[in-house]
Design goal:
2 domains; elongated; six-stranded parallel β-sheet; alpha/beta; DNA polymerase, domain 1; Rossmann fold
Amino acid sequence: MNNNIKHVFFDLDHTLWDFDKNSGLTFEKIFELYRINVKLETFLEVYEPINLKYWKLYREERVSKPDLRYGRLKEAFDIVGLEVEDEIINLLSVAYIDHLTTFNHLFDGTFEILNYLNNKYELHIITNGFEEAQERKMKNSNIRNYFKTITNSEMVGVKKPNPKIFNFALNSANALPNESIMIGDSLEADIEGAHTIGMDTIHFDYKDTHYNHSYKRVTKLNAIVNHL
């Protein structure tokens, strides 16, 4: 256990905010609104890995925000064999962002771990998500007040794992790398990115699929108490 830690930095999506669950409920709602005739489970099975692929391209500056929002839907519809006009895809991409923050399921144990940590450390967020959506997610799920600083990739101009976003977050928090720990689901963006600048890390492997790396790992949020 690292006793020097004073600051705990969290990722938001897939770490505290249950993105997969909320996203599935959002698609159910907007497909009904726009009368998109596709079996939800079939669509989500195709969409989820495509979405992760587009976010990786977005992190690497290889697609723009509009390209991400359109491309992930277009590609998923093509694979499930549903012909959807570009105009409708663009409407769906906006509706998805609008409705996403009306569902605010958090991972089990979120409030318990935040209450536990809040008594011992200063808490912060570092996220690659879109600024307008991330603020709404935190407010609507009642976790915004736990965090002293929020660092978003859009305000910094780069995305995790770029060292600049971690350094920006540390400066905002008035924190040093060796007294800070990053908790997130992405090995590449959160864990390796934070390690590069000398931060400690805990990998939140909520799908329990990464056994063979040397980083601290938990599969449930309440297991963080074993490390902090």
